[in-house]
Amino acid sequence: MVSVEKAILCLLLREGEVPVEKLIRVLRSFKESEASVRTSLSRLKKEEFVESRKSNKKAFYSLTDLGKDTIIFKKYKLLMRERNWDGQWHIVTFDIPEKFRYSRDVLRKKLLFLGYGTLHTSVMISPYDMGEEIKETVKEYGIEDYVEFFSAEYEGDKNIKDLVPKIWDLKWLERKYKKFISIYEPELGELKKKVAEGDSIDPSYAFLKGVELNDSFSRIISVDPHLPRELLPDDWIGFATERICDEYLQFLESVE
Questions:
Q1: Considering only the top CATH level, what class is 89-152?
Q2: CATH code matching the domain that covers 4-70, chosen among 3.30.70.2190, 1.10.10.10, 1.20.58.760, 1.20.1290.10
Q3: Where are the beta strands (DSSP E) in the chain?
Q4: Tens place of pLDDT for every residue, the chain, 256 residues?
Q5: What does pTM read for this prediction?
Q6: In 10 A of CB 152, how many CB atoms?
């Protein structure tokens, strides 16, 4: 679940002014207590993200302009990358002196963010050419003399698929995807069963669940190198996870 604060802000942005009782009721569906909701509202009000008014002894909350500017909706689709591959490998090597350690760390983090894997110490590789973006970082931090760029084809005798797990931690990524499926696949099944039996789903709940799904899947997608299908196991769990996420989001949209 997203944080209580973000859930409150998202709900207020969607629905405008909302009575506190409704906020408590909706978030209780996400296993949040009344106390945690009231504490979060108090904190958000103190930080001037929300404001309140009373009418007929009832408290109503709405967003301030600051609150509206604070909300960031994640859409995991925006983080997906094309998996088209021409068979070329793009390599970045660097030998950056210790006195530029901060710049070296920035470069390494940038490479990891772009999906590069570690072939050897100070040698990072990707099936995609991200050279121009990396060169901007290299230039910005003044380390041009210590970084080199190459493109090459693999001509070794090993199966390239056997090398991939040594460069990227696919086992760690697989565990993240499995955890996502273990949570959301049975949850989707329960909701579908509920609707099939004639029960309704609160549109506010469906909306916040969609926010949660996008947040949860985006956290995984942001660290997935999006390797080409040619380099991944035939039954790569990431594809199945994406299908489940899409199916769940489409279901939620149908009941909102």
A1: alpha beta
A2: 1.10.10.10
A3: 18-19, 50-55, 58-63, 89-94, 117-120, 123-126, 147-152
A4: 689 999 999 999 999 999 999 999 999 999 999 999 999 999 999 999 999 999 888 899 999 999 999 998 899 999 998 899 999 999 999 999 999 999 999 999 999 999 999 999 899 999 999 999 999 999 999 999 999 999 999 988 888 888 899 999 999 999 999 999 999 999 999 999 999 999 999 999 999 999 999 999 999 999 999 999 999 998 999 999 999 999 999 999 998 6
A5: 0.88
A6: 10
